[in-house]
Design brief:
- With about 625 residues, this protein is α/β, with parallel strands linked by helices.
- The chain is built from 13 helices and 36 strands.
- It has a 9-stranded mixed beta sheet with strand order 16-15-17-18-25-24-23-20-21.
- The longest helix has 21 residues, at about 605-625.
Length: about 625
């Protein structure tokens, strides 16, 4: 027995269990659902179907402006984001197999085009269309695209996407754009069944600084029922001037376009790419000069930068003439050896000039440069160190120099375009990497005489959802201060008292959400508690009922959604056919899962019991026989 205890053999048992397929039912609870009673009756019928609920692990959701984790709500949602609801289901379900049933009229008021949403192949989508499938006669302003900022004296672009549906003949109507009830642009637009969409690109003059709100009106046709989409608004803030960044390069490189796109993602920035000779006429009005792989052609420009103690961003690489740069200045120096290799970035945790919005440096591809030793003379902080084949070198890839008169930044390596491309692949957008480039440019282009409290918001919000006021506060040395307490006070523009609310620090920016405000015109006041720093301004939240004039179903869009997700579109009167299809035994069968469980032949508590029992018997026998 002792030997058996020591060996303790194990037994493998196979346990078979069955997992139900998952079924997600999404019910549109927006105000555009005219047949809400019938929809609730359908929902009750499916809830009570025993076969359906025994076959599937059923989850019910309602949605409007966002996904709600039950369907016991009123049909009162004022916005609809079908694409957002599907994206949330995708993140919840991951790869878990099973169908999604979407009960909706297909009317979406904001968000990405849901008809192109694509879930994993194991999750087919079966839409049930609510509403009249006959396309109504309708003219619509689908989208208005414009910048949020422009400069006095310039023209700013406006892009309008217009649509025509439900008609069988060509029509003409007038499109007008007004400012303060004065028409500033008009044009006659022609639609036909073959030309049902128009994309117009126009330019409007920016004559005076301030926040301007424009109104767009598309003429109404006889018999048109939905008139709310014939009108739209957009706002723009006209500034005295935009931040002017000049990139100087003696040749062409993909980095130049990538840098420009990253910088202009901030709409308050304009970027020009010029040659060293052209830069001589641009440097006087430039807020920041970016020198890309400078050589001796940069000598006159570099003389001006040195004489005027200008800020500068230096990007070096294999084509940089370091012998020339070493002669001209002594802050950044490099002993080139004529060998170009790949250098990978290694982040320095002690860097604290500003918080980098991009943090995944180790995931970025290497840059290329001469691998000679580089040195920085004077007060500086390194953000990135160089690593070659896994060996971290004691020299920077990116270094920030600052004295009492100027700021310089060095990025030693070319290939930023690969960084930006990889950042998009990793995170699905350029936002973080572009924000980092913007922060670097802001660090360099800052004028210490500038106001230390910077407030950012849109002059006009199409909806309260997502509306917010953002602010940043800088200390006396113009370093970003994230320990201050900021608050915003808001009141209606036509009077009333200010209502104060705190601003929350998110990353390096203070934010105040405006989601709870009703439509209207407002004035605001942002201030730093305990200090005199204060900014005022105004904004508007529009009141447009995008859900109140529907009753029609978007057949083509919902059908396209089904096609992209291995499903099929059903009309509301075909819901019973879909229910029958889902309950069919051969559809969406249970998944057999076999689990192997290993157990010891002798469990420790049984062994302990046997030892105690045998010891007790031995003791009793010895006592009984008179042994001690």
């Amino acid at each position: 027995m002792v030997l058996l205890f020591l060996i303790n053999p194990e037994i493998n048992n196979e346990v078979v269990r069955y997992e139900k397929p998952k079924l997600a039912v999404l019910v549109d609870h927006s105000k555009s659902i005219r047949d809400s009673v019938e929809v609730r009756q359908l929902s009750d019928l499916w809830h009570q179907d025993l076969t359906l609920n025994s076959k599937f692990d059923v989850s019910w959701y309602a949605f409007g402006e966002e996904l709600l984790f039950d369907d016991q709500n009123f049909f009162d949602q004022t916005e609809t984001d079908i694409g957002g609801a599907l994206a949330q289901i995708k993140s919840i379900r991951m790869e878990a197999p099973g169908p999604v049933v979407l009960i909706s009229d297909g009317q979406q008021t904001y968000g990405r085009a849901y008809e192109y949403s694509q879930l994993p192949s194991e999750i087919p989508v079966y839409p049930i269309l609510i509403g009249d499938t006959l396309t109504p006669l309708d003219l619509v302003i689908e989208k208005v695209y414009t910048n949020h900022y422009s400069r006095v004296g310039q023209k700013f672009p406006v892009e309008l996407l217009l649509g025509y549906s439900g008609g069988n003949k060509a029509i003409q109507t007038e499109l007008k754009i007004s400012l303060a009830k004065e028409i500033v642009w008009r044009k006659t637009i022609t639609f036909s069944p073959d030309q049902s969409a128009q994309l117009l690109q126009i330019e409007l003059p920016a004559k005076a600084p301030g926040q301007l709100i424009y109104q767009v009106d598309l003429g109404v046709m006889t018999g048109e029922q939905n008139l709310t989409n014939n009108q739209a608004f957009f706002g723009i803030e006209i500034l005295e001037q935009l931040e002017n960044i000049v990139i100087v390069s003696s040749g062409k490189h993909p980095d130049l376009g990538a840098l420009k796109r990253a910088l202009v993602s901030n709409e308050q920035v304009q970027v020009t790419i010029v040659s060293p000779e052209e830069a001589m006429t641009h440097q006087a009005t430039a807020d920041l000069l970016v020198l890309y792989q400078p050589n001796r052609r940069f000598a006159p420009l570099l003389d001006i930068i040195l004489d005027q103690k200008r800020n500068m961003w230096l990007i070096s690489g294999p084509e940089t003439d370091w012998s020339f740069l070493n002669q001209k200045q002594s802050i950044f120096s490099k002993e080139t050896i004529g060998v170009t290799d790949e250098i990978a970035p290694e982040a320095i945790e002690e860097f604290d000039l500003f918080t980098s919005q991009w943090t995944r440096w180790a995931d970025l591809p290497p840059l290329r440069t001469d691998i000679g030793a580089i040195a920085v003379s004077g007060p500086h902080q390194d953000l990135l160190k160089a690593s070659i084949q896994g060996n971290i070198l004691d020299q920077p890839i990116m270094s920030f120099y600052e004295d009492t008169e100027r700021r310089w930044v060095l990025l030693d390596g070319v290939g930023f375009w690969t960084w930006r491309l990889e950042a998009h692949r990793l995170e699905g957008s350029y936002e973080s990497i572009d924000a980092f480039i913007g922060s670097t440019a802001k660090y360099l282009s800052v004028d210490r005489a500038n106001e230390r409290l910077i407030v950012d918001h849109q002059p006009i919000y199409q909806r309260a959802i997502g509306a917010q006021i953002m602010a940043q506060y800088f200390d006396v040395s113009y370093q970003l201060n994230t320990t201050a307490l900021l608050e915003v006070a808001i009141k209606p523009a036509d009077g009333g008292r200010y209502e104060e609310r705190p601003m929350t620090l998110l990353g390096q920016t203070y934010v105040a959400a405006l989601d709870d405000l009703p439509a209207g015109d407002y004035r605001y006041r942002v201030r730093v508690k305990g200090l005199d720093a204060e900014k005022t301004g105004s904004f508007r939240i529009l009141s447009i009922d995008r859900e109140g004039n529907s009753g029609f179903g978007q057949w083509s869009k919902m059908d396209l959604l089904a096609q992209h997700n291995q499903g099929k579109l059903y009309g509301f009167d075909q819901a019973e056919a879909l229910l029958h299809f889902l309950k069919t035994p051969e559809q969406f069968t249970q998944k057999e899962i076999i689990e192997t469980k290993t157990t010891s032949l002798i469990q420790w508590y049984y062994a302990l019991f046997l030892v105690i029992l045998s010891s007790a018997i031995e003791w009793w026998l010895r006592k009984y026989n008179g042994y001690t």
